[in-house]
Amino acid sequence: MASALPLALLSAVTFAQVQVIVKYPQENLSPGDYISIRGAGYGLSWSNGKRAASVGDNTWSLTLPNSTGPLQLKALVNDNIWQQGANAVIVPSSPTFNFTVYPWFGSQAGHYTTPPALQNLYSTYFDNTRDIVIYTPPSYYENTMKTYPVLVGHDGQNLFNASTSFQGIAWDIDQTVNALIAQERISEMVIIGVYNTAKRIAEYTYSTDPEFPSPQSGEGQHYLDWLEQHALPKVVADGWRIDARPGQLRMFGSSLGGLLSCYACYTRPTIWAQCVCMSSSFWWNDEDFHRVIQHQPPPPSSSIFYVDSGNTGPDNDDFNQTLTVRKRFQELGWRLGDNLGYYVMDGGSHNEASWGARFYVPMLFLFGVED
């Protein structure tokens, strides 16, 4: 898995002292409440907690005895109310290692909203407007000290809500993500769904296909510029707590949105670090993306790509084209199950129902956590 505990990529130091720092709003606790830590490794136990010291507003600290190897832990209130979600898994990488935990303790689910400030966002270049919908995970409103990794998705109106989706079928990704978080299988993230427009083909393609002459296609560079220079800064300015730093961004999409996602990560790796490319239109412009990855310099191996397809429907959902792209990535040194994900949905075809049904696969690949 790409972001599960990357034990194959990280090596623990031979001997380390770990300081665990817990950040949580004091206002959510009652007078006299305290924070403790339970876990496995470095003197911790799952049966009895060690009390962390209050070291300032909303902050607790516990220094663990020197030890080696990985560490798993959870925070508790009064040593009986458990932190929700997956265990924190730590591989110390220096002799003195600090790790910060942002727990939440309620049983609430994450949900999506279309904030007023992110409705009808205008693009000067395209002379159009679109909405942005935001999914926030379970801890978002409880632990207001936490900033989240962000995943940006195309065709935003299809991701959550059947009433706004193409042919009335949504991916229902909020339900998928909430279930995986509750099952302690993935870490949390904020998802930004950017609506498409009547210029979808132009905006989602980086080259011009003869069947769609300019300006009907080939405007993807300008759309990516708009995302990076206008849409994401607007989300940040509206107060959403996301890590929008260049090089920390993730993108996903299907069909032409999958094509653009792979293109963005391949050609703009200093901005887009990870991408999910589902049923991608790799047929576009005589399989132009294959030429891109044959002739353009590859991004660093830290770039993570996930590609998939179904195997039924017109052209078997581009199964062969997707397999060709996967093989080319492997020729360039990408490793399946490490920095390259690949999946074929047996019986899957080119539609919202198939993409929603298998959305759990890329989420486990990018955000999965080890047992």
Please specify the SSE layout and strand pairing.
Blueprint: E1 17-23, E2 35-40, E3 50-51, E4 53-56, E5 59-63, E6 71-77, E7 81-82, E8 88-90, E9 96-101, E10 111-113, E11 121-123, E12 128-130, E13 132-136, E14 150-153, H1 173-182, E15 190-194, H2 200-203, H3 220-237, E16 249-254, H4 256-267, E17 272-278, H5 284-295, E18 304-310, H6 319-331, E19 340-345, H7 352-357, H8 360-367
Parallel strand pairs: 1-9, 14-15, 14-16, 16-17, 17-18, 18-19
Antiparallel strand pairs: 1-5, 2-3, 2-6, 4-5, 6-7, 6-8, 10-13, 11-12, 13-15
Helix pairs in contact: 4-5, 5-6
Can you walk through the features of this model?
By secondary structure, the protein is α/β, with parallel strands linked by helices. The chain has eight helices and 19 strands. The chain has helices at 173-182, 200-203, 220-237, 256-267, 284-295, 319-331, 352-357, 360-367, and strands at residues 17-23, 35-40, 50-51, 53-56, 59-63, 71-77, 81-82, 88-90, 96-101, 111-113, 121-123, 128-130, 132-136, 150-153, 190-194, 249-254, 272-278, 304-310, 340-345. The protein has an eight-stranded mixed beta sheet with strand order 10-13-15-14-16-17-18-19, sandwiched between helices. Strands 2, 3, 6, 7 and 8 form a five-stranded antiparallel beta sheet that branches. Strands 4-5-1-9 form a four-stranded mixed beta sheet, with no helix packed on it. It starts with 16 loop residues before the first strand and ends with a helix.
